[in-house]
Amino acid sequence: MKQSIYIVGPCSAESREQVLETAQAINTLRSTVSDTLFIFRAGVWKPRTSPSSFQGAGDEALAWLQAVKARYHMPVATEVATPEHVQAALAAGIDYLWIGARTSASPIAVQAIAESIDHCAVRPAAPVNVLIKNPVNTDAALWIGNIERLERTGVPVMAVHRGCNHQPCWQMAHIVRTARPDIPMLLDPSHMSGDAAKVAALMDKITELGLNGAMIEVHCHPEAALSDRKQQVRPETLSNLINLTNLNNQNIELNWLRAEIDELDATLWETIAARMDVSRRIGIWKKANDVQPLQPARYEAILRQRLKWAEEHDLPSTFVQQIFDLIHQESIRQQK
User: Fold this and answer.
1) What is the 3-state secondary structure (H, E, C) of the chain?
2) pTM over 0.85
3) What class has domain 254-335?
4) Structure confidence by residue, pLDDT tens digits, 130-164
């Protein structure tokens, strides 16, 4: 059985006490799990949406990660977004650097980080490892390009799939996994869901899709966290999550395709529900303005558009018309 990888710890390093308390709990769990590499993670510099949000403790927090490494002999990881972050992290002996989704959306930023790693005067003798999350947009080619930029420095690279806007985006990850099966890919269920209660269900995907582990936000007191409090799990929950996973699976390619289908189906039904909501609002307007629900001329115009679309996408016109008629009939019913 191949070794699984879990990069776990709080979203942000908030204080020395908080970091060490969380690390101690994780280290206790670590001693009970075999065939697993545990890496302690905590954000030192936080790229937040609002300047009023907690931006991280900065360079001071690197010493807290050093304390985790010294006390528990556990490798440590933090996020970097600039060459200055890289220099400071490597000088502090950080073992794993990760590049977040917002930074990975910019190939210029990733290239600058790669060059900083390559030319760092304080680069440690032991090889630093880099984790690259998918970009915030669903751009598989950019994600692959970022992997290649980093690999040119000679550092080992791992991919971290965190989805986009709390959606899985399995198709993007499938493309990257197929193109680069030679590098580990981890799941980030914390950011993919944005909800600690939904993390467990996503952890099943590690086995189903043949992933190599996960990056999970873990906090001893998530209700008091200074960032991402809703998606951080407690250390005692982490134990159950890890026990859910088993990296042996024989139907990986089929499961990837089914994951894509499931996500497309969810989007399809959400779109239909949204369309019916608009239809109800159209019905309110039509009643107020004494307009009949059924407008034959508009129906015919839209149907022509759909049949043209069917031809362009090599779909049977009868199939497309049947679906369109069902949706249209329900839309009319919603307007009455």
Assistant:
1) CCCEEEEEECCECCCHHHHHHHHHHHHHHHCCCCCEEEEEECECCCCCCCCCCCCCCCCHHHHHHHHHHHHHCCCEEEECCCHHHHHHHHHCCCCEEEECHHHHCCHHHHHHHHHHHHCCCCCCCCCCEEEEECCCCCCHHHHHHHHHHHHCCCCCEEEEECCECCECCHHHHHHHHHHCCCCCEEECHHHHHCCHHHHHHHHHHHHHCCCCEEEEEECCCHHHCCCCHHHCECHHHHHHHHHCCCCCCCCHHHHHHHHHHHHHHHHHHHHHHHHHHHHHHHHHHHHHCCCCCCCHHHHHHHHHHHHHHHHHCCCCHHHHHHHHHHHHHHHHHHHC
2) yes
3) mainly alpha
4) 999 999 999 999 999 999 999 998 899 999 999 99
| CATH C-level class of 4-249 | alpha beta
Domain ranges of the chain: 4-249, 254-335
